[in-house]
């Protein structure tokens, strides 16, 4: 099970997919002297058990151009299978169901965070411009499809195939694979844009520390002050960025197999991609919850891009002041149409 | 019922590639798809040994387990086959296979590699035995004709043994006892979780 | 791209059960099929896809094993082991191959080439129709037009320059019948310049071994090696050149726990299975063998009794061997004395022991001496003429043995009769043509450069020019070529252009020719050599799998191959082409006087019967077509080790498989053939024999006849000379002859009846009578350790022409310059120049060349077979890691290999391996199509270029020829390697 | 909602472009595993006439 340990270690370190370019080292010959003359080749034969103990895989020479064929035996294939069919479904299941239960539980205990009257001044302030919303939704849409098709690799044959039957499931999976491979590119693009545009607003600072100490307002009822993004939002930003980059790196490595690493590297890359993937999905579930059901009015920020000025002053006071300072003519007002809060 | 296995006696294999071309001939395997190949360890040194390797039709086959569309099936005589209609060409079976058996018609990226092809132990595929459709997708079906894989039948020094596991293990054991040396049943521990005690 | 799923019948219900079924682990295919909606009906649609012709036949039967499958048996056309090919033919299309379980030689197995041989007969890279080079472009012509134009040009050349100016390069891939036909064709055309691949294969073996104990062929067989307790494999790599022989070698090694000693400068795939590996410097075979003998004589391990009874001249060998002390041996060969002592002990004690050799021993300027040294080693230890012993000479091509036997050799007529008048008269009688007419076909050679003129008779009895130097016959100044005129026309049958050394000079030769004709299934590299604009014809000839005929394997067994499919495309078989050409040249009637010709195709069975009528000298008289076909039908009856069928079998009772020659007497007396030559433990009627008494009866006061050693059951219980009619009368056995046998002998003898020997008695009476009395008619003599008629009576070490150790050249120089085979052999001058120019410093690496298992010969045919070509796609040079490091060469990188002559260079890939020692490089010789860095693929006729092309090693190989046979020195020269 | 639609369209377009680029980069095995020394004529048993491995589909093939 050493493969899993490496996978978890890599996760902990948050290091990118460990690109293990294990070049095929020649097998240490039993008795290689300068001149083999006088030796007994029959008795000097290599033995499989001894080689596997020393090198844990058997690399040789073949006369055909496909270098991969020179790998005679790699027992790690069984270990990777043990991880992918044994551990991974559990990790995924616990992470995703766990998060869903947590959100479900939270919803039925704390309920939806309502807008109180003081936060409906009828005046709107621009939270996210069109481009920011576009890049968010580009990434989000792709993420949803990637998540579903990704999970299909793990849970499809366990949950979906019995329902729709192998033929339809195979066709679906084929489409799922294409979708996963090709939508990954817009996802990566969106990820990059989000990183570039929002990174300056997501640098953690003292205000965030205070925000966290107050439990983000969940514990007490006081609203801790926050800039454009409060600590929670900064956390999800960094989860998306780091997780996204890891997923992209391992994804690209898997999309161009053996271009940078050998088969054990590919196994590890897939393991990292899968584990981070399920955790990433879990995290995003929380994000989706809080951005839609969890807090009233939060969706507008990314839906229309405008939020109520009072709501903004309550939740992102320092950000509002910044905005006011920046625009001497007062808050950005778009048309005088008062928009009823949904 | 027989439990079909492969055993390559590395102390007889001379890397003459008869197994490779017999497979190419029998199933008209295209260029670039190498169902079987001979790997030489310690090439050029006195301990050099060559081993012919295709698919070992493993017990509890890793490829079958990791396949996201479960397109593998194991026949009653333990030959691991798969359906090219269900296969989506994702390549996971290649990572899982301890012996590098799966081959793909297209190479370059994960995207559209085409359907996986691998050694079928000359037992064809899910199509009806000995039909043209089976031949076009999986090659000929010698087992249905009561024969054994052609690679083993034509091996120049009878190094590659194919057939029921016990029988070929017995043959190999007798050889080792008679000649006094043997470098082991290569791949058996990994493939069948047991090996021939010599 | 939506992958279209099954047409709509995937009902949900059926699939539901599939998933659950899967969960329960193992399910059989039938249920998998049913559950997953892939019911048989749904698949019939898939079968409607139209595919290539081949599969159309396959589509006809639902499977290959349907009722319409015919099984045809032929012999693999690649190497000389003689594996049976079992072909499945449906509607005239070869659709599959099955293991030939019955054959005692390959027992179902094949090597890479045999298992892929089906591809040859429908390869799309075959030459499909005759083409002619017209101002640099290949133009399709009809067969008639080609034969007409070639015939006219040949007659024109004959008239202007003489018959010797047309060179007939035959093929080792010929059937016996075709080889015999071409030698007869050459005789009727009027030249002895008829040669084939044996020249560059085992020509030195045939000369050396024949001059030692009578016949120059493998004395035992592959199957017999199973009896050996010790085997020395010297200068041979059977794992790549004769893979199926390794089945017998390794089985023998295992069953007898035998010692397998491999002596080779390169650690080959064969050496990987050795029990003792000896690495020597290339070109030092004789010092090594004498080094072994030194220990044997030093400790008295030789078989004194055997030497006394059956060997002449061993004391001369003792004198020469005494010089080769272990430290001198180590200085020259690099092999420590201690190791050779071990080898000497094993070979002389753990018997029966056999010596196996191949090109490593023969392809040297001392090739003939090498093989004689090996024979002497076997003789000294009594390891000849018994099961598990002998000289197991592994011949190369499928029928190089048969083609050599049947005369494709510039120095003899079919079946080793030689070129003396008696031989010509014998064949004139068999061919039923007048001796004088034959003589009239030969040129008169005028006096030239101080050499006396030659009459037609003298020219008729003078060997032609060797195939290793055909281009010297073209390029050399007129006066240096000892025939009427230089070679003007090359008729190439089944022969690659890249297997002879000094290709740059061969290219010059091709440019100077007036006519080049290549008759081959593939264009061969001849089609790309030089920059000719015209005068080249490529004629498609079918492979031997597409015609009937017999071929002789290396163990001297003849096997009959039946036609598997009709000749592909517009190709014709060899018989038809030779008939059409003979008709055009005007001597078809004489040539085919007693050979039936059915619509232009001579009947091979008839040709074999004519061979039987004339093949008395070598025992080719008993193998009638009927007996050979009976053997092919009853292959399973022959024993694996003795190759013998049970005595009581009606069809093949008591026969050895393939009636290995000599098979004495007429077919009717059913001689079983001779599995093991010179075996005195068997009655001559059971295949027993003795050493031939062909060198006279006495020399320097010592008898040349065996002393109290004779075949079991012989009425003559001591050595005896060859049996003639005169001796028969002296013994009073002439009364055993039947009246018509007597009449035939008298007709042949004319006024000197007593001189009619067993070899020219067409009635076979002398042989029959001797066999009845247990007497071997070719005499019971001693083997000659001292061959006084050869240049070096006792083999002496001579450094290769391009030696890496100039200081040794002074002590062991090559033979002095001399004229051989009509042209000068200036080996001594070239060697001296190499030392003076210090070639060894600027070209420090020893270059050797050899076989790959995936390819064969010039490689054109096997490199056109995609199943083989995929396994070796690049020409390469094996270089030692130390040499590579010095030159900054990485594994797989491009390098230039530079040769010392013609400043030739080849661009190849580097294979960095310890297989070759430091200062040694090795290259395969099967590649062609690239020349000194340029890719000549475009020079092949459209669509006939082989799949894989590469540089030819013989572009950089050099001058050097064996004095006795003109063999080339491809096994050792010098080169320099640098990164490209 | 407008930006979401726009994002979806953009995603699909980019995916299409990626699909095209990836399939162009894809090589049949006979090209990927043949060296400068070989000129190969492809055969298609086992992998279907259009090298997709899908025996039924007749999509754009890499014939010859």
Automatic annotation (TrEMBL), chain B:
Domain 4Fe-4S ferredoxin-type: 4-34, 78-107
Xref: CDD domains: DMSOR_beta_like
Domain of life according to the entry: Bacteria
Key word Iron present: yes
Protein name: 4Fe-4S dicluster domain-containing protein
PANTHER family reported in the protein's UniProt record: PROTEIN NRFC (PTHR43177), PROTEIN NRFC HOMOLOG (PTHR43177:SF3)
Molecular function terms, GO-annotated: 4 iron, 4 sulfur cluster binding; metal ion binding
Phylogenetic lineage: Bacteria, Pseudomonadati, Pseudomonadota, Alphaproteobacteria, Hyphomicrobiales
Pfam families: Fer4_6
Keyword Iron: yes
PROSITE patterns listed in its UniProt record: 4FE4S_FER_1, 4FE4S_FER_2
Keywords, sorted A to Z: 4Fe-4S, Iron, Iron-sulfur, Metal-binding
InterPro entries reported in the protein's UniProt record: 4Fe4S_Fe-S-bd, 4Fe4S_Fe_S_CS, ET_IronSulfur_Cluster-Binding
TrEMBL record, chain C:
CDD domains: MopB_CT_Formate-Dh-Na-like
Parts forming coiled coils: none
GO molecular function terms attached to this record: 4 iron, 4 sulfur cluster binding; electron transfer activity; molybdenum ion binding; molybdopterin cofactor binding; oxidoreductase activity
GO BP annotations listed: anaerobic respiration
Residue ranges occupied by any 4Fe-4S Mo/W bis-MGD-type domain in the UniProt entry: 69-125
SUPFAM superfamilies: ADC-like, Formate dehydrogenase/DMSO reductase, domains 1-3
Main location: other
GO CC entries: cell envelope
Membrane-spanning parts: none
Keyword Zinc: no
Highest taxon of source: Bacteria
Localization, UniProt: Cell envelope
Family: Belongs to the prokaryotic molybdopterin-containing oxidoreductase family.
Protein name: Formate dehydrogenase subunit alpha
Organism: Enterovirga aerilata
TrEMBL record, chain D:
Protein origin, superkingdom: Bacteria
Residue ranges, annotated region (Disordered): 44-64
Protein name per UniProt: Uncharacterized protein
Originating organism: Enterovirga aerilata
């Amino acid at each position: 099970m050493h493969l899993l340990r490496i996978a978890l270690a890599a996760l902990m370190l948050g290091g990118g997919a460990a690109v293990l370019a294990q070049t095929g080292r020649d097998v240490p010959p039993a008795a290689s002297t300068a001149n083999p003359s006088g030796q007994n080749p029959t008795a000097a034969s290599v033995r499989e058990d001894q080689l596997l103990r020393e090198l844990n895989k058997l690399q040789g020479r073949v006369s055909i151009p496909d270098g991969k064929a020179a790998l005679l035996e790699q027992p790690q294939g069984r270990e990777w299978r043990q991880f992918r069919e044994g551990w991974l479904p559990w990790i995924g299941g616990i992470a995703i169901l766990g998060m869903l239960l947590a959100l479900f539980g939270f919803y039925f205990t704390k309920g939806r965070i309502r807008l109180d009257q003081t936060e409906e001044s009828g005046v709107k302030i621009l939270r996210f411009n069109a481009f920011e919303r576009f890049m968010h939704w580009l990434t989000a849409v792709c993420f949803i499809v990637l998540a579903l098709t990704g999970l299909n690799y793990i849970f499809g044959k366990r949950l979906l195939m019995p329902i729709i039957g192998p033929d339809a499931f195979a066709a679906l999976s084929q489409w799922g694979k294409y979708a996963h491979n090709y939508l990954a590119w817009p996802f990566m693009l969106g990820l990059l844009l989000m990183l570039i545009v929002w990174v300056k607003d997501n640098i953690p600072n003292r205000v965030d520390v205070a925000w966290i100490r107050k439990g983000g307002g969940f514990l007490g009822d006081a609203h801790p002050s926050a800039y454009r993004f409060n600590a929670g939002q900064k956390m999800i930003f960094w989860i998306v960025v780091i997780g996204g980059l890891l997923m992209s790196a391992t994804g690209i490595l898997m999309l161009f197999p053996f271009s940078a690493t050998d088969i054990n590297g590919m196994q590890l890359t897939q393991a990292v991609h899968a584990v981070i993937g399920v955790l990433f999905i879990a995290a995003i579930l929380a994000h989706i919850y809080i951005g839609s059901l969890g807090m009233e009015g939060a969706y507008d920020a990314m839906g229309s891009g405008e939020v109520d000025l009072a709501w903004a002053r309550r939740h992102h006071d320092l950000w509002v002041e910044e905005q006011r300072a920046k625009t001497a003519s007062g808050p950005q007002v778009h048309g005088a149409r008062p928009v009823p809060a949904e | 019922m027989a439990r079909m296995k492969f055993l390559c006696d590395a102390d007889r294999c001379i890397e003459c590639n008869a197994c490779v071309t017999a497979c190419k001939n029998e199933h008209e395997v295209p260029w670039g798809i190498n169902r079987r190949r001979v790997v030489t360890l310690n090439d050029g040194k006195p301990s050099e040994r060559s081993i012919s390797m295709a698919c070992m039709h493993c017990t509890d086959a890793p490829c079958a387990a990791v396949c996201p569309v479960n397109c593998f099936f194991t026949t009653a005589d333990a030959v691991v086959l798969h359906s090219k209609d269900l296969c989506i060409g994702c390549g996971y079976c290649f990572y899982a296979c301890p012996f590098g058996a799966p081959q793909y018609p297209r190479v370059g990226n994960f995207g559209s590699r085409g359907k996986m092809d691998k050694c079928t132990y000359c037992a064809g595929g899910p199509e009806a035995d000995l039909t043209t459709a089976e031949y076009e997708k999986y090659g000929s079906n010698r087992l249905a004709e009561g024969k054994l894989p052609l690679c083993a039948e034509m091996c120049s020094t009878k190094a590659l043994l194919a057939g029921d596991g016990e029988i070929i293990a017995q043959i190999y054991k007798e050889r080792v006892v008679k000649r006094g040396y043997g470098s082991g049943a290569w791949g058996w521990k990994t493939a069948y979780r047991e090996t021939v005690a010599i | 791209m939506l992958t279209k799923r099954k047409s709509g019948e995937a009902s949900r219900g059926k699939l539901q059960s599939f998933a659950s079924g899967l969960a329960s682990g193992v399910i059989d295919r039938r249920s998998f099929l049913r559950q997953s909606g892939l019911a048989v009906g749904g698949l019939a649609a898939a079968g409607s896809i139209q595919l290539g012709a081949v599969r159309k036949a396959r589509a006809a039967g639902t499977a290959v094993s349907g009722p319409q499958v015919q099984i045809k048996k032929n012999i693999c056309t690649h190497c000389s082991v003689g594996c049976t090919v079992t072909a499945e033919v449906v509607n005239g299309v070869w659709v599959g191959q099955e293991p030939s379980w019955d054959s005692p030689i390959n027992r179902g197995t094949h090597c890479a080439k045999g298992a892929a041989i089906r591809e040859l007969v429908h390869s799309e890279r075959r030459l499909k129709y005759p083409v002619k080079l017209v101002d640099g472009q290949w133009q399709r012509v009809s067969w008639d037009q080609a034969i007409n134009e070639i015939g006219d040009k040949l007659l024109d050349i004959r008239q202007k320059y003489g018959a010797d100016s047309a060179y007939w390069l035959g093929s080792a891939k010929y059937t016996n019948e075709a080889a015999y036909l071409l030698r007869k064709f050459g005789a009727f055309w009027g030249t002895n310049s008829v040669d084939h691949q044996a020249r560059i294969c085992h020509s030195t073996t045939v000369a050396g071994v024949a001059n030692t104990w009578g016949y120059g062929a493998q004395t035992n067989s592959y199957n017999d090696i199973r009896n050996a307790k010790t085997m020395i494999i010297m200068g041979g790599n059977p794992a790549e050149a004769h893979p199926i022989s390794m089945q017998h070698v390794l089985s023998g090694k295992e069953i007898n726990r035998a010692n397998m000693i491999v002596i080779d400068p390169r650690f080959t795939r064969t050496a990987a299975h050795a029990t003792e590996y000896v690495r020597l410097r290339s070109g030092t075979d004789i010092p090594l063998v004498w080094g072994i003998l030194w220990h044997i004589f030093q400790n008295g391990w030789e078989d004194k009794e055997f030497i006394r009874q059956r060997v002449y001249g061993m004391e001369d060998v003792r004198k020469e061997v005494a010089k080769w002390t272990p430290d001198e041996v180590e200085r020259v060969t690099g092999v420590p004395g201690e190791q050779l002592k071990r080898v000497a002990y094993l070979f002389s004690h753990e018997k029966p022991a056999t010596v196996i050799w191949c090109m490593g021993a023969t392809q040297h300027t001392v090739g003939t001496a090498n093989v004689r040294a090996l024979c002497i080693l076997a003789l000294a230890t009594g390891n000849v003429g018994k099961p598990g012993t002998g000289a197991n000479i592994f011949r190369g091509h499928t029928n190089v043995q048969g083609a050599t036997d049947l005369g494709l050799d510039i120095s003899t007529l079919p079946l080793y009769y030689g070129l003396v008048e008696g031989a010509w008269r014998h064949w004139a009688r068999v061919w039923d043509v007048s001796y004088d007419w034959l003589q009239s076909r030969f040129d008169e050679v005028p006096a030239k450069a101080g050499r006396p003129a030659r009459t037609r008779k003298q020219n008729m009895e003078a060997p032609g020019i060797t195939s290793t130097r055909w281009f010297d016959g073209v390029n050399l100044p007129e006066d240096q070529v000892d025939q009427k005129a230089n070679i003007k026309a090359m008729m190439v049958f089944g022969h690659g252009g890249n297997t002879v050394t000094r290709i740059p000079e061969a290219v010059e030769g091709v440019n100077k020719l007036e006519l080049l004709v290549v008759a081959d299934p593939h264009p061969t590299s001849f089609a790309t050599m030089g920059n000719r604009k015209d005068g080249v014809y490529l004629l498609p000839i079918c492979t031997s799998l597409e015609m009937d005929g017999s071929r002789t394997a290396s163990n001297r067994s003849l096997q009959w191959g039946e036609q598997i499919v009709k000749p592909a495309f517009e190709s014709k078989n060899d018989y038809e082409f030779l008939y059409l050409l003979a008709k055009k040249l005007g001597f078809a009637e004489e040539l085919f006087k007693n050979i039936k010709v059915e619509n232009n195709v001579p009947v091979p069975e008839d040709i074999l019967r004519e061979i039987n009528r004339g093949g008395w000298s070598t025992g080719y008289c008993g193998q009638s077509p009927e007996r050979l076909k009976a053997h092919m039908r009853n292959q399973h009856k022959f024993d694996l080790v003795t190759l013998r069928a049970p005595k009581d079998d009606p069809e093949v009772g008591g026969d050895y498989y393939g009636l290995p020659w000599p098979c004495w007497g007429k077919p009717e007396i059913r001689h079983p053939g001779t599995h093991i030559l010179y075996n005195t433990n068997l009655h001559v009627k059971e295949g027993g024999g003795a050493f031939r008494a062909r060198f006279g009866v006495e020399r320097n006061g010592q008898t040349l006849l065996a002393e109290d050693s004779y075949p079991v059951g012989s009425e003559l219980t001591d050595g005896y000379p060859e049996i003639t009619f005169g001796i028969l009368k002296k013994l009073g056995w002439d009364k055993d002859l039947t009246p018509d046998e007597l009449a035939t002998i008298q007709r042949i003898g004319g006024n000197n009846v007593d001189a009619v020997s067993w070899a020219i008695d067409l009635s076979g009476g002398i042989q029959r009578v001797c066999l009845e009395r247990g007497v071997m008619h070719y005499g019971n003599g001693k083997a000659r350790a001292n061959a006084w008629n050869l240049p070096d009576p006792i083999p002496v070490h001579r450094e290769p022409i391009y030696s890496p150790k100039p200081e040794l050249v002074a002590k062991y120089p090559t033979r002095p310059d001399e004229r051989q085979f009509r042209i000068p052999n200036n080996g001594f001058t070239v060697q001296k120049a190499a030392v003076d120019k210090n070639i060894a410093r600027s070209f420090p690496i020893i270059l050797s060349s050899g076989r790959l298992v995936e390819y064969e010969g010039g490689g054109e045919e096997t490199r056109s077979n995609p199943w083989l070509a995929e396994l070796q796609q690049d020409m390469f040079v094996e270089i030692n890691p130390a040499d590579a490091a010095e030159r900054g060469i990485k594994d797989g990188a491009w390098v230039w290999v530079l040769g010392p002559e013609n400043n030739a260079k080849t661009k190849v890939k580097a294979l960095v391996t310890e297989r070759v020692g430091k200062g040694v490089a090795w290259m395969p010789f099967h590649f062609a199509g690239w020349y000194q860095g340029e890719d000549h693929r475009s020079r092949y006729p459209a669509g006939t270029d082989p799949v894989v092309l590469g540089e030819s090693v013989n572009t950089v190989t050099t001058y050097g020829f064996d004095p006795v046979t003109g063999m080339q020195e491809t096994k050792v020269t010098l080169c320099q390697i640098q990164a490209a | 909602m407008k930006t979401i639609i726009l994002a979806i369209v953009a995603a699909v377009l980019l995916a299409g472009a990626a699909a095209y680029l990836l399939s162009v980069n894809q090589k049949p095995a006979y090209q990927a595993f043949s060296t400068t020394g070989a000129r190969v004529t492809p055969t298609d048993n086992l992998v279907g006439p259009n090298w997709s491995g899908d025996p039924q589909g007749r999509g754009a093939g890499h014939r010859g």
